[in-house]
Amino acid sequence: MRFLATFQAYDFLDTLVSLTAAFVLATLIGAERQYRLRTAGLRTNVLVAVSAAAFVDIGMHLTGADGAVRIIAYVVSGIGFLGAGVIMKEGMNVRGLNTAATLWGSAAVGSCAGADLVAQAAALTAFVLAGNTLLRPLVNAINRRPLDERASEATYEVLLTVDAAAMSTLRETLVAKLEAAQYPVSDVQVIDRTDDVVEIIATLVSTAVEAKELDSVTVDLARLPGVRHATWNVSTKD
Length: 238
Fold this sequence. Notes:
It contains 8 helices and 6 strands, in the order H-H-H-E-E-H-H-H-E-H-E-E-H-E. With 238 residues, the chain is of the alpha+beta class. The protein has 2 domains: 2-134, no CATH class; 148-236, ACT domain (Alpha-Beta Plaits). The longest helix is centred in the first third of the chain and has 43 residues, at 42-84. The protein is elongated and about 75 Å long. The relative contact order is 0.11.
């Protein structure tokens, strides 16, 4: 059997270390995505990283660094197609860009691990996690910065992550509370996140919005039974 003739314990151990490193590091990235109920969660990020590590490791063992570099180029383009699958356009909004970028980061972590650059893979994992967690307060602060509505047309959305069983009641409650606060709703969308969790997105009619008032509304909504998370955001066409 050719396997017995070509098998080398040292090479196998090297492969095992690369795949294990990719698995562990991608688990850290995927766990954060899973916690936030993103489309590409724990398993997807792990599979992307481990697969990238396996491909690069094969190239390393067959033709050395030159082979690994060629395979990495194909991994980069391949993950681009995979990331495009999680990007969704809903009306004027585009969702999933951060999830797609995170998949690219997981692929990079796997590629580093497959190329025996485990320390670099660990550092990259830390930066990906920092981008998805530590920068979140800064993003929220920027999003809540008052906009000059004379210079840009703003679109405000209120988002609720709720239990699927309570979706109908909470959807009506969301609209009622916003209208009671003098913020009429132009559209309401319901997006399935998992089997038992949905996201309700209420788009407000173009009007002047006070950040403190919307903060108060979302705080009240977050206290309702069946609501897992409540927030709001603003975007412009500029």
